[in-house]
Design goal:
The protein is an all-alpha fold. It is built from 13 helices and two strands, in the order H-H-H-H-H-H-H-H-H-H-H-H-E-E-H. Helix 9 packs across helix 12 and helix 10 packs across helix 11.
């Protein structure tokens, strides 16, 4: 159990015992609860997928509906229990996993009470996200935040890159339109630009292709160029991710400004100053 969850643990009584089962996966009861919950989630997602297969829905539609209501009932009871047993139900309700838990149950009720809203049932697939909690994958959220920060910091460079790529595919598409012409399938500049994008990204659907020697030469150049272009945004984001990771793992020494001092270090590895005492002295001045 995370330290964040432990702050919301009731001090005594049945709520504390149930908190141990539902929120603490390291206990025997918690492990059993998570196994049962995992099976229920997987069955629920499987039910959603099977409902989209027409002949299965015709043959076993009523059975699938019954299974869905049973699972929705179980998830509803679990959601209510999570609200009751925590000392701060509001914190859970507005948390990421709390919102996912709620979204996992309300589509079934909405589809039941309001005709024509059955398409909301597909939201039940969000239940699969709950596996993150059971398999303790929530610790990777911090890494996702690092990636998000890297993308945010590199947004200007990526924008410049996208403008450059857009210009390249527009020029290449225009050239191919003039070289190949409508008789070879390049009947408009937009369609020629579509071919340039497909070729540059190395997808290559093959629905249209150059037939002339010049067109094939240009296509070969675009294919090679595509590999180089794909590597550019990867490099941009990787550099920003390294910077974000360093900011998370290291701090700057207040005296010598050494940037690679570990976060938990009390002494600077470069100048040897006691960082805590130096900060206190600076603060008292």
């Amino acid at each position: 159990m995370s330290s964040r969850s432990s702050r919301y643990k009731p001090k005594s009584g049945w709520r504390r015992r149930w908190f141990t089962v539902i929120y603490e996966a390291d206990t025997p009861g918690g492990k059993l609860f998570d196994i049962i919950l995992l099976i229920a989630i997987l069955f629920s997602v499987l039910t959603v997928m099977l409902e989209t297969v027409s002949y299965i829905k015709i043959e076993y539609g009523s059975t699938l509906l019954m299974i869905e209501w049973i699972l929705t009932g179980l998830f509803t009871i679990e959601y209510i229990l999570r609200l009751i047993i925590t000392s701060k139900p509001g914190k859970y309700a507005i948390s990421f996993m709390g919102v996912i838990d709620l979204l996992a149950i309300i589509p079934t009720y909405i589809a039941f009470f309001f005709a024509g809203s059955s398409y909301l049932i597909t939201i039940r697939a969000l239940r699969l996200i709950r596996v993150f909690r059971i398999l303790k994958l929530t610790r990777f959220i911090g890494e996702a935040e690092t990636l998000s920060k890297a993308l945010k910091n590199s947004r200007f460079k990526i924008t410049v890159f996208m403008v450059t790529v857009t210009s390249i595919v527009t020029i290449i598409g225009t050239v191919l339109y003039m070289v190949e012409g409508p008789e070879h399938g390049f009947n408009s500049i937009p369609k020629s630009i579509y071919w340039a994008i497909v070729t540059l990204t190395t997808v290559g659907y093959g629905d249209i292709s150059p037939q002339t020697a010049m067109g094939q030469f240009i296509a070969s150049f675009v294919m090679i160029l595509g590999y180089a272009i794909i590597a550019v945004p990867t490099g941009i984001v990787s550099v920003e991710m390294n910077k974000a990771q360093k900011e998370k793992d290291y701090k700057t020494c207040p005296k010598c400004l050494y940037s690679y001092t570990p976060k938990d270090a009390h002494f600077c590895p470069e100048c040897g100053v006691n960082i805590d005492e130096f900060n206190e002295a600076e603060g008292s001045e």
